[in-house]
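S1.2 Input.
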Amino acid sequence: MNQCGPNQQSARGASIPEETNRRNFALTASGVTSAGLIAAQSLVNLPAVHAAGSETLKVGLIGCGGRGTGAATNALKADSNVKLTAMGDAFEDRLELSLEALRKNEALSAKIDVPPERRFVGFDAYQQVIDSGVDVVLLCTPPHFRPMHLRAAVDAGKHVFAEKPVAVDAPGVRAVLATCDLARKKNLSIVSGLCLRYHAGFIEAAKRIHGGDLGEIHTLQANDYRGGIWVKPRKPEWTDMHWQMRNWYYFTWLSGDFNVEQHIHFLDVCVWMMNNQYPVKAIGMGGRTVRTGEEYGNIYDHHSVIYEFASGAKLFSNTRQIPNCTGDMSAQIVGARGRAGLNERRNGAFIESANRWVYDGQENDIYQTEHDDLFASIRSGKPVNHGEYMANSTLLAILGRMATYTGKSITWDAAMNSQEDISPAKYEWGPIATPEIARPGVTKFA
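S1.3 Output.
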């Protein structure tokens, strides 16, 4: 079982859109008073079909890469009376490939009704999908766009599945917190793509750890060691924006760097095991050792961060993407009474304390369970809202990137209040500068 990420995603592609600018959206969140949200510990055994009502739920997909196609598949399986009625992507070829793949699934083909007039292409495709009459939107574009797309969906009264992470900078995080607070007031569901919170073994481990099996936690470790991923060679006809959008993963303004785009999963697991407590500061280091060519944009290929909590507990975070190296994707939690280990392998959740416990229960499809949760909440009229933890865990990963990029010790409050907005000045298919590669000790915290 592989957690959702760029190995399952494809770059998006192009058609000249109406110019849009993220700075047109509110990016501050004053007075957010969201209560702490608990993960979906009780949702693992939900049935796959929720037909409490007879009304057809219309779904719109925004972002048609591999992860978006997978999310659409899960959404169509989650309810007996649901249809995919609209799709949008920056690039037409990505949309058409996604639609073709979905139609080939015989079990789902009858639930797909996306005629040409409801296939939208360009930077403004998200708004056209939202305005097409859908009830639920799946937000699966590169993370940079999540704050504006989420706000547009909630403003329009739509329920949302939001892939992780939900922002690439602090202004985006603050905007998401404000939007999720609005969604709560409007009784709309927002389900996060932090899919490990739906892992049956992790859920049982969390219950035991929260119940005191480890005693007071003092040390955590989050590893994400993996190889390289795809690169889209630049074509002569591509503008700078085409090239960066096609290779979105390698540009911090689009992906947040892979410490944010990917490592967020096990960082989130660690703070979940800490009962959704977040650290007060971080220090770290990182750089580019193997991915040094211009085709790799401006992100790093390794990060190592130490997060410190108010209690004095420390989270040691390590992540790299370098081919031909040993892989490890896991979390370790150590407390006064014992330790726990979490990975996605069979029986990959265990606790060693007074007695040894190993999860040996039924495995679940974490991607499916998160969509079952979403559609069950809509049918029941009992909305779920993961806004607080999905936004704060995004900031947790951004804080780590800030520490590695600058070489400075940075507090949580400083990160949350950062004014660094890494958006481009405008969205159009033309020239755009290649972002500079961060240099610790030279790059400034903003």
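S1.4 Remarks. The chain has two domains: 6-197+368-387, 200-362+395-416.
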